[in-house]
Specification:
The protein is mainly beta. The protein folds into four domains: about 5-30 and about 435-510, no CATH class; about 35-120, Listeria-Bacteroides repeat domain (Immunoglobulin-like); about 120-280, no CATH class; about 280-365.
Amino acid sequence: MKQFIKKITAFSASAVIAVCSATSGALIGADTTEETTYTVHFDLSEEGVSVAPDKNNNIPEITDITKKGNSSVLIPNADLEKEGYIFSGWTEDDIKGYVKGDVFRIKDHDVTLHPVWVDEEDDVFHKITFRVEWNGEIDTDAEKLVPPVKKQAGRFVQIPLDTFPRNGYKQRGWTDGTTEFAGQEYIIVHNDDITLTPNLKKLYILRYSVGDADRINGVKELEFEIPEGDSTDLQNNDRFSRNGFKIKCWHCENDDKDYAPIAVFTMPSEDVLMTPVWEPIKYTINFKPTSNSADYIKVQGYTDTAIIAPECSYVKEGYTFAGWKRDDLVIQPGDEYIIPGATPGTGISFSAVWTESGGDEQTTTSAPNDTTTTTTVTSSTVSSTTTTTTITSSTNTTLTTTETASSSTSTEDTSTTESTTSSVTTTVTTTVSTAQEENDISYGDSNCDGNIDMADAVLIMQALANPDKYDVGGTSENHITEEGRINADVDPSIKGLTTNDALTIQLYLLNKIDKLPIAIELPIIN
């Protein structure tokens, strides 16, 4: 079996494995990246503070919590006690509060949370108003949905989820003019009234454009409305498709910086233009003197660079080599060929052109196809024996042999056979493989580009998910071929194309298995 170059990326592997795992039950992958951890400390050092017993009279334990950055922790489900005071919850900055069972997000630093108390003898209430005002005019109807509340100092007020955006803006919770509060967060009441207004963020356009780049497939530009100050994930590197190129990163025309695909980007107070930074794809160009992959001549090169067409060392009896052909282009050994790039998921290959010796008839090497061969041997003018053999290439093939002999004597070379039977017809049907030898099958190479990589697993999943477009004879120019289907059947436990085949290819790319197929038994042809 032909050995191929393995090509895989962690992201593309995990994406396709997730699809296959849903069917096969397999799970692959582990994140070994070390991340910084941070600690949330609950301060119980204040004099006279203790943890209150729960309903079962047990004392809950409150301990520090250490986790990775940007992780969430739960505030302990416990109350505190202090003589003369009522426990409200916890705070880091004396502005936002957190109640027991609440979610607290660790960002990029250690945190100390302190208890917040209400004086039992405090009888002064402070007003918290949610002011909805446009151009100096109060929207009284809107404010009916968010009526004011009155609370003592030390109490928490939950921010409403109600929003009142304006055209061209998006509301992100509420603000007191200094601090922004998201819906359902808590603000701590102090010894003053509080007025909160909608926290409006102006919307700006985040635009992605390929500019004047050539060979683009599909969309060339995308636009998204993002509120100023919001963090958003940039698009992945497959958002635009360009023959022969892949997106290395995004270049921001505003700050002249490059950003990795799916990196977090904070939207400024202006429209932003992102353009892709392209890098050429490295191809393995297959020059095919025969349909047997073992005979392929491989030449590597990058998009828009020149390679030299190789000499053809293969000898085809009765024919003269006449060049290499791809589509309507024929080149000769020693000619330069500029790699134009191929549609994503496909490769580039040339087939040999053969001229029949002594004539002008030309043939072109192609992949295994339907073949019909008829052979007739006539031994004399009096009687004859005719043998017709038909072999049709498909998954199951019928081999039919018909022999007819007359009652007279038939002579072939020096042997003589007499038959007294007027006619004998024998039909033998057997199942054969479309590839007569194991070496004829390029296992794993479903797109027939000469490599085994993630594109092969993706093509299998596409053919299964959308056969009208990607299976044999599909409408897409990148559909799988009969040869590709044979190559793709790398899991012999299930005959034919299945999601297990895509998963098996990924296991091979991840070095979980060392060869393809896992195991196979070819049928014996007599």
